[in-house]
Amino acid sequence: MKLVRKPWIWVSRFRNRKGYGVHSPFAYSFIRGVVLETTPYYAYSELAQLHPWWVRWGRMYPLSCRQLLFRLANFAEPKTVVLLTEDEVAKKYVRAAVPRAEIISAGKPLSTNTGRGKGDTKRERKMVEMKAEFVFIGREYLGEAARYAVAMPPQGMMVCEGIHENREAMEIWRAIQADPHTGITFDLYTYGVAFFNHALYKQHYKVNF
Q1: Which residue has the higher pLDDT, 112 or 207?
Q2: pTM confidence score
Q3: N or C: which end of the chain has fewer CB within 10 A?
Q4: Domains of the chain from N-terminus onward
């Protein structure tokens, strides 16, 4: 992940800051209360130590993005989490946000509080993955995103990293947005966030994060 966000990205999204123009109560509350929340969470100080000192000192982009990931997981309050990423820092942020959740990393259980272990069969893992309420897909696994999107439950949230990384990544994200199973989505540039509750009017929001 780049240390500093390019200025032109912020300028191009200037009109999409702070929830301006958003009429959906859910979307506005999510943008202001989760995406743009500035109140420090209980675990921020400890988790910040996972970053080099210059990232912490300059409050660089990796720090703010990982803190956002923490808030997203915390907001979802999932019982089951799937993490498809090789980013160990991201995994630790999610685990800190939802310490009681069952967490599966790239098909392998990470948590020990569920009684599951190395003896899990592929079928058992698949059943757990398919009911996950929170799925984080790192840029290196973005090609798997569509497969998870169509299986997400109505209360689920999926976070995709690197949706503007290249043309292929953007096409993957657009396909997820267009899928009938997908509901409201938020383009936060580094992250794409998708909800699957069809009780909410389907709309796509671009946010200046």
Answers
A1: 207
A2: 0.81
A3: N
A4: 61-206 (3.40.50.150)
